Amino acid sequence: MGTLPGRFCAISLCAVTFALGRAGVGRAEDASSWRDIETKYIFGFTTGSGIGLEGEKEFTTDTIGRFGKRDGHYAATETKYEFEFTPSQFIQIEFGALGSTHNIGSVTDFDDRNQVAVSGAFAEFRYLAIEHTSNNPLAVTLAVEPTVRRIDETSGERVRNFEFETTINTDLELLKNRLFAGFNLLYEPEVTRTAMGETLREAKLGGSAALSLRIASNIVVGGEVWYLRHYDSVGLSAFTGDAVMLGPTLYIAFTPKMFMTAAWNTQVWGREVGNLVSLNLAEFQRNRAKLKFAIEF
Amino acid sequence: MSKVPLMMRKLTPAAVCVITMLPVATSQAQQATEVQVTYSKGQFQPSELRAPADKPITFRVKNLDAKPMEFESKSLRVEKVVAATSEGVINVRALKPGRYEFYDDFNEKARGTLTVQ
To answer: Most CB contacts within 10 A, which of A36, A104, A178, B73?
Structure first.
């Protein structure tokens, strides 16, 4: 499996095999004896409300791969090398560097490119607004993530890009320790100054719903659906297209302090304004994948 | 009338309010409920604790064992390593009524619950 999507699948399969072996998932397990689970990472691209434990620190690598345009060959990844800490019982802070890869050939409107680069930096601030208790299954976290890039995440071109992602992360414990629903609302305005001196303003607006089942104390599987809209303005006045992404999710805790999460989304519906083609491959990709590894200390 | 006395007149009630509230705030800060728990032979004693709702809680965890333990709770959102034969202090926000589980992260079997009413 030499391709990037293939590598994502292979890593996920190896992790599942390893984790299933450790968990002995064939045994009947009583979910009431399981410890509470951190919900932040169990929904794939959808983020849960968890903010970690006060005093906890974590290092993670979080890679998002985007694959497939209308024609040619398109594969791009962006990896966050991230330090995360929780200074209080209500706030979590993350920051780090971004690395990107672009492997693009014969795609309309894109230059051919095969590059690896340090592409930018980001920070994230999360505030737990409503906390989950044994009497309240609902939890809500508000998050903002300013990001600056020197490499465009889609085309790989040299740019100056400023993005300000704002999300509301909600989750609901449907069955104690067993079944969870997650919901995100997303507003992501960005301003890009190209190498030609042109200034582009755009925004992404969207929402997601996810359902995750804990099949063993250390393994959670599920599925998620995203509806995303794209605008050529930050004020949401110039709608250019939308898409629906759908796919499976996986979370595995290898040890109490080390885990991974993986997700795969395929575009199942999309439209481009002024273009009568199926799917929206101008602003979104055919498939996207997420692979995250984390170590807490 | 000069400006200074006018300002003084306006500021005095505010200052009185602040000064009046200060002892209240201080006493509220001091009103944390203290909960003591001992960790011995790989178990919490007692393992079922109680505390009042809407008041901060201070856990005093006395580890009597000869190896360190990590007091941790996802629902309380705290973790702290307590060295062998020593005491750890963990401050927790004011909690809503409910049941909060805690455990030793180094020992799968050591668990306890805090019931907040």
So the answer is: B73
